[in-house]
Amino acid sequence: MARKSMRSPLAQASGLGSAKEGVEHWWRERLTAVALIPPALWFIASMIAHAGSDYVVFIAWLRMPSSTLMMVLLLVALFYHMALGLQVIIEDYVHSSVKLLALIIMRLSCFTVAAAGVLAILRVALSG
Amino acid sequence: MCGSTVERERPKSPNIQIYRPQLTSVLSIANRISGVITSFVAVGLVLWLLAVAAGPQTYAAAQGVLASPLGQIGLVIAIFAFFLHLCGGIRHLAWDAVYGFDLAAIYASGWAVVAGSIALTVATWIAALFMAR
Q: Are A86 and B39 a contacting pair at CB < 8 A?
């Protein structure tokens, strides 16, 4: 039998689980969870610190490059982690033909809302 | 063969309707539910950021919604759900690193998650009230 790939059969098969994805989803869920801890705690602390701030003070803080960076990191990690988590919930409870549709809508919604959030942050950071 | 067994409905497992809730099972589903609630909070966060970007008037309107009784209740639920999912998630990460698998450790970490998330929610609220003065 002529081999179609330069990779050995073992290299092609290793890491592939029954769903042909191995531990990739599980691992990304953990990675995004760890990545979320610093910006999430930073955000809570910042919101506490600005509980008494007016719009001008708050915007000035948000426009700082470090704040903008942390907010973008927070949103990317948050919505990535959220999409991975909601995917598992849909796969666990939805078994009919709407499963694929639900997964697609969920994924696209997460991407859209995350993009809207990042654009809002950049609009504040880069305007005037 | 075995015609009688066909008519009798077989017991289903796990029988969660009659199974006594335990800390382990309650925290397991609580982690999932708090994750879903935090997902809604994340959407709310982006809506709030859009209000911030839209200008002072829209921002004031958004702050007004958050300051209303319903907004305050929502904010408490949001903060508690976030901390419950954070603490539960850290517990899961410890399990993933193969720590805390004996029954005593599982119950100790479980109660730590409950106490920790309540304490962090109360601390956040008090700190925010103090800063808002």
A: yes
CB contact at 8 A, A52 and A79: no
ipTM score:
0.87
Q: Does A80 touch chain B (CB under 8 A)?
A: no
Beta strand segments in A16-58, E:
none
User: Using CA atoms, how far apart are residues B122 and B38, in angstroms rounded to an integer?
Assistant: 18
Interchain CB contacts (distance < 8 Å): A and B:
71
Q: Nearest CA to CA, how far is A124 from chain B (Å)?
A: 5
pTM over 0.95: no
The tokens for B12 are 């289903």
Q: What is the pLDDT of residues A21-45, one digit of tens each?
A: 668 899 999 999 999 999 999 999 9
- DSSP labels for A52-109? T--HHHHHHHHHSHHHHHHHHHHHHHHHHHHHHHHHHHHHHH--STHHHHHHHHHHHH
Whose tokens are 């915007």? That residue is A59
